[in-house]
Amino acid sequence: MLDYLTYVQAGSGSKVTQDQIDKLALESKSGWWTKNRDRFEGVAGFEDLPQ
């Protein structure tokens, strides 16, 4: 709960939009997946990995 309150307080003065935040999150997740996808190949539960 404290982490959430810190997050809200830190973002309260920001002029960034939620759309910009969502796009940044998507880009960072995509980059992470590209770099780490091979770590999950052949691991049970990850048979249908996106390419």
Give a description of the structure.
By secondary structure, the chain is an all-alpha fold. Helices cover 57% and strands 0% of the residues. It has helices at residues 2-11, 18-36. The protein starts with a helix and ends in a 15-residue tail after the last helix. The mean pLDDT is 82.
**Strand residues, percent:** under 5%
Uncertain spans, ≥5 residues at pLDDT below 50? none
Q: What general form does the structure show?
A: elongated
How far apart are the first and last residues' alpha carbons, in Å? Answer: 36 Å
Number of strands: 0
**Helix/strand class:** mainly alpha
Helix content: 55-70%
What's the average pLDDT?
Answer: 82
Radius of gyration, in angstroms, nearest whole number: 16 Å
Q: How would a textbook summarize the main sheet?
A: none
What is the count of helical runs?
Answer: 2
Sketch the topology as an H/E string, one letter per element.
Answer: HH
Quick take:
By secondary structure, this protein is mostly helical. It has helices at residues 2-11, 18-36.
What brief labels describe this structure?
single chain, 51 residues, mainly alpha, elongated
Q: Can you lay out the helices and strands and say which pair or pack?
A:
Layout: H1 2-11, H2 18-36
